[in-house]
Amino acid sequence: MKRLFSLVIATMLALTFCGNLFAAELVVATDTNFPPFEFKDKTGKHTGFDVELWDALAKKIGVEYKLQPMDFNGIIPGLQTGQIDAGIAGMTIKPERAEVVDFSDPYYNAGLLILVKVDNDSINDVKDLKGKVVSTKLGTTSADFSKAETGASEVKLFPNNDAMFLELLSGGADAAIFDSPVIAEFMRTAGKGQVKVAGPLYMGQSYGIAFPKGSELVAKVNAALKELRADGTYLALYRKWFNTDPK
Questions:
Q1: Distance CA 155, CA 146 (A)
Q2: What is the pLDDT of residues 204-242, one digit of tens each?
Q3: Nearest to 152 by CA among 187, 119, 114, 120
Q4: Concatenated DSSP letters for 37-70?
Q5: Residue 42 φ/ψ, nearest 5 degrees
Q6: Is the pTM of this model over 0.85?
Q7: How do residues 15-33 score in pLDDT, each as one tens digit?
Q8: List of residues 6+ apart from 35 with CB closer than 8 A
């Protein structure tokens, strides 16, 4: 009887543990301001390409999650300390980042563009930025490029896109450098008629979803991403948010 009782208790504990495990909610970080990848809509809800792509991936994998909006430069530290389980925020797959976090397969290809005010005819490519003031976003590939490749007299770093673009529009910077899809979205919306692109696309780059080192989610997300590409879900989301087909 004692052995039977012990077996029953052990089974109940195991079931309880398994139930909690499967009910566990992933914490998924996303940027607070990175349209059209992630941003707040008019109702205050976070949405965008990254947000909807992750939701589709989570459904494929069969996991529950909580979206955790945060500043971009806090995502990798959050992954390293185990406070978050994944981060999807238009994050470029870079060797130095891959040393401290694991990445999924690429899910978006982008590059960097130089943005100037519409009446600026003195800046036509990266060479013309020498001695100029450039605004960009803290902790990004754009910041690295701006410091290393432009010869700018000053690179102003901002925590979000709005401040970076405002610095350009207000005359505090001669140019802004950032990811091509975000530049395109700004030109289509708040910056329409006020700004233009100067020069070609620089630094082709791929975005990946970031995870803590050794995370079992990487393989599951990669498999789900392949399924979304195959069944047309990825294409539909891409067309919805970028009004074009993937290149």
A1: 7
A2: 889 999 999 999 999 999 999 999 999 999 999 999 998
A3: 114
A4: TBEE-TTS-EESHHHHHHHHHHHHHT-EEEEEEE
A5: -65, -20
A6: no
A7: 443 433 334 899 999 998 8
A8: 48, 161, 182, 185, 186, 189
